[in-house]
Amino acid sequence: MLNFEYQNPTRVIFGKDETKRVGKECKKYGEKILFIYGQGSIKKTGLYDKILSLLKEEGLLVYELGGVKPNPLISKVREGVEICKQENIDLVLAVGGGSVLDTGKIVALGAKYDGDPWDFFTGKAEPKEKLPLACVLTLAATGSEMNRNAVISNEETQEKLAVKHPVLFPDFSILDPVNTLTVPREHTVYGIVDIIAHVFEQYFHPVPETPLQDRFAEGIMLTLIENTHRVLKKLDDYDARANIMWCSTLALNHLIEAGACGDFATHQIEHELSALYDIPHGAGLAILFPQWMKYVIDVIPEKFAQFAERVWGISREGKDVKEVALAGIERTKQWFSEIGAPVSLKEVGIGRENLERMAEHATRLGPLGYTKKLYKQDVLNILEMSL
Amino acid sequence: MLNFEYQNPTRVIFGKDETKRVGKECKKYGEKILFIYGQGSIKKTGLYDKILSLLKEEGLLVYELGGVKPNPLISKVREGVEICKQENIDLVLAVGGGSVLDTGKIVALGAKYDGDPWDFFTGKAEPKEKLPLACVLTLAATGSEMNRNAVISNEETQEKLAVKHPVLFPDFSILDPVNTLTVPREHTVYGIVDIIAHVFEQYFHPVPETPLQDRFAEGIMLTLIENTHRVLKKLDDYDARANIMWCSTLALNHLIEAGACGDFATHQIEHELSALYDIPHGAGLAILFPQWMKYVIDVIPEKFAQFAERVWGISREGKDVKEVALAGIERTKQWFSEIGAPVSLKEVGIGRENLERMAEHATRLGPLGYTKKLYKQDVLNILEMSL
After folding, report:
1. C-alpha to C-alpha distance for B254 and B70, rounded to whole angstroms
2. Taking a contact as any Cβ pair under 8 Å apart, which residues of chain B between 231 and 260 contact chain A?
3. Which end of chain A is more exposed for a tag (fewer CB within 10 A), N or C?
4. What digits encode the pLDDT tens for the residues A18-54?
5. Which residues pair with A175 in a beta bridge?
6. Would you call B5 and A14 a contact, using CB atoms and an 8 Å cutoff?
7. Residue ranges of the Alcohol dehydrogenase iron-type/glycerol dehydrogenase GldA domain (chains A, B) (predicted)?
8. Is the interface score ipTM higher than 0.85?
């Protein structure tokens, strides 16, 4: 186990109908709320009206920023920062999935900064403080509701970059599984792929002596797989949705990574894909991950074999370590297919045309990853294996 | 899964030789430190001198409160509160195991309260604020380093009671496994029993749909069992000590309980034993737990069978649920014996003489537990089964 520091101050309010507390909880932070949301699905489900009336019941003054896109844009963040500064907003309330929550994080951060919020992504500025931030989650996927990460795209530079800083932890997040009962099948699947990808990225590392971290990661994967089958049979299965939601939060709240070392290379390569092609993040991950696994298998074959055995129940009998490991990877790819995620670039209509450019761009600041350092040629190899 | 609220603000600094940071970290909170410790083992190991010199290097003014006993006393807490008030202490630094940390918690709490600190245990006062609290852990057991609980004994009333309140979370805790390498075999074992008992208490509940909580609990148990065997072969095995330490923290930092419901009846019954006889807490738990399990088995037989299968690897083949469940309980008792913990009251020299009195006292405020409500006669039955 590596030495580590761990702290996560976010207050989680979890459970059926806890959304009703949003007004009272927000009021603790002030009177002026900037309510951020996405492209209107919360208007269709009625959540928009519900939140608005809960906020108004408490006498809160509500400003709005709607229209956040799935790969959220820095231009939208700038709009939000402008409102915060002009209206002296007390609290940012982000209602949506990871894209809305990440937008909320950077809006809250930018509101307390004199320059352009993109500065935090280029390293020109270091986060210091943010406005209070509340979240109501409507999609189990990114873990943004209880972590210090935010990913934003810049439409001018065609970059998709992350900021990670303790100041970005939400002050509180309402995790009400009821708000995910209406998520369509496709988005449910992509969310699930994102969750399991986060676990992969903190599990397939070469750090020795992390048995508890391994068991927690395996626990999330097993729970997620079991509940994926349930939710795909019945999209409004409350218990399955609740279990998946809690998996999503614990998959990326820094706990299973503590003492180990995350390797987020696949996420970084995927960001190139979804920045350029605007495909769903989860689709890109499902395509790339089995290929990344095969590419790095020889660094940690025993870890891949442990995964095959404990998560997929693959017997070691009559196989050597690498055979077991490969069987686990194959099973993962097959599972992505079974649940309806693409497993090749071809399936989402992407050819060779930009692979080199993406590999170049992905590694422009240096090699990616930790388990195996990936240089431009490695990234290109993985992308070609994904065709 | 039940609805829940979860927040844990404690900053954990974990790893080899992280103790060296104690001076600099404490200095962030002020100049005057009350250094609390136990009965001198840290003087023998050199940790006392090391901490003192690290604090003095930073120019800090150090006051001391030594001599905290294994079942820590309210009289010692009162001494500490007195020093805090007289000397205007800025930070309480507790260096030791759970008894020292719990003393630190209530000293820090009492320092900000006008009345007697026992008031928090009787319900006469509600915790509101405390002095900043830092911990350096020297024994993996109670989880006090990252939770909101404290247990203190009152020598006058022969009571051992708990306070649980968010204000009691330590501000930061240094978890340096090196500080546990010299813990003698017996205390190591009792610490381990305490850890697994905490997991039992949050795992054997009747709440449906807690698959992730179950997997996390099982992960802690499996890791603990594997590493117990390693540490008992080689008491100064750093990796085994590190894994056990992280197990102890996660076993009782409220995470695995979130969405489920703890049943701490066995701990409460044990508090009667150790309040009256001053036996090690872990010894009392090892004696009582298998009997409690047998006593409540019919409420949740499937959960006990799951435990038998997943934790002890007991096959279900050819057995009905209750047989599997009972085999798991028997294996637990056998394991306690194997690692050197007592499994009957007789082994620690306790007879029938005070069983009735303890059962009476344990239930004086009402029945115990959640999985099965235990009235006086139930507690008496469990104590008699433990003879």
Report:
1. 23
2. 239, 242-243, 246-247, 250, 255, 258-259
3. C
4. 999 999 999 999 999 999 999 989 999 999 999 999 9
5. A14
6. yes
7. 9-177
8. yes
Give Cβ neighbours of residue B257 (< 8 Å, ≥ 6 apart).
B202, B213
Domains of chain A: 11-180 (3.40.50.1970), 185-385 (1.20.1090.10)
pLDDT digits 0-9 by tens, B345-359: 999 999 999 999 999
Establish if B86 touches chain A: CB-CB under 8 angstroms.
Answer: no
How would you class B209 by CB atoms within 10 Å of its CB: exposed for 0-12, middle for 13-18, buried for 19 or more?
middle
- d(Cα B167, Cα B147) in Å, to the nearest integer? 10
Give CA–CA dist B108/B104, Å, rounded. 6
Task: Using DSSP bridges, classify how beta strands A4-14 and B4-14 pair: parallel, antiparallel or unpaired.
Answer: antiparallel
H-assigned helices in B58-210? 74-87, 98-110, 119-122, 185-203
Residue with token string 């097959």? A334
SS3 content of chain B, % helix, strand, coil (to 5): 55, 15, 35
pLDDT level of residue A158 (50, 70, 90 thresholds) = confident
Residues of A within 8 A of B259 (CB-CB) are 14-15, 246
Residue in A20, A24, A212, A226 to test binding to B, most B beta-carbons within 10 Å: A212
Q: For A6, phi and psi rounded to 5 degrees?
A: -135, 130
Q: Could you tell me the two tokens for B129?
A: 């604020």
What chain B residue is nearest to A17 in terms of C-alpha separation? B3
